Hints:
By secondary structure, the protein is of the alpha/beta class. The protein folds into two domains: about 5-15 and about 95-215, HAD superfamily/HAD-like (Rossmann fold, 3-Layer(aba) Sandwich), CATH 3.40.50; about 15-90, Orthogonal Bundle (DNA polymerase, domain 1), CATH 1.10.150.240. The protein has nine helices and six strands. The protein has a six-stranded parallel beta sheet. It starts with a strand and ends in a 20-residue tail after the last strand. The structure holds xylulose-1,5-bisphosphate. Xylulose-1,5-bisphosphate binds next to helix 1.
Amino acid sequence: PLEAVIFDVDGTLAETEETHRRALNETFAAFGLPWFWDQPTYRRLLRVMGGKERLRHFIEHDRPERADAALARLDEIHAAKNARYGAMARAGSVRLRPGVARLIAEARAAKLRLAIATTTSLPNVEALLVSTLGPGATELFEAIAAGDSAPAKKPAPDIFLLALERLALDPARAVAIEDTAEGLRAAKAAGLATLVTPSFYSEGQDVGAADAVFSSLGEPDAPARHIAGKGAG
Ligand code: XBP
């Protein structure tokens, strides 16, 4: 029987990428870098998973002429982006996608265990969960596998395998929910049944390997409910 649901974060729980993009562009300006990622650029770069890996790819492929100077500041630029993103998330600029709050509440009511497997950094995940689901939100998830805690980012299966290891669970007893082709590949390689709900940036990607594809996880226009702390535990 099904025992756990493992959620991706960016694009699946919430449409976070426009906030990441805004935080990035503001960071570039603050660092005096003459870079601007518009939507088509970001859509292309999103195929490289992980914010730091994506920046590295951009510097090496799109701005190779001054790559050394930029690469030397890579960690600093990425940390500054995440600080901005965290502040934006805490200020409420990201909402859960429709149906996500209900799905989490219903999964808990059905005694399913919840986990997260994401490429994004842990503080970003925490900021998002707390601002959308309330102060106790991180405790809703038994395992939060994020960012650099696994050796390789998606589409490698590592982050899903880490979440499964922390749950001490066989992949046959869990389902993953993803929004991208890369995330789907990662979940499938970890042996998980996978539902895909395409997001703003992943719409049109080939997700034919999914066990099911949903345009949305729930009712359109429903307000996100704050469920953390209410009858938790
Ligand atoms: C999406 C990503 C992330 C975010 C930025 O990950 O690739 O890199 O775009 O976050 P997922 P960071 O779909 O697995 O949640 O800059 O913290 O990496």
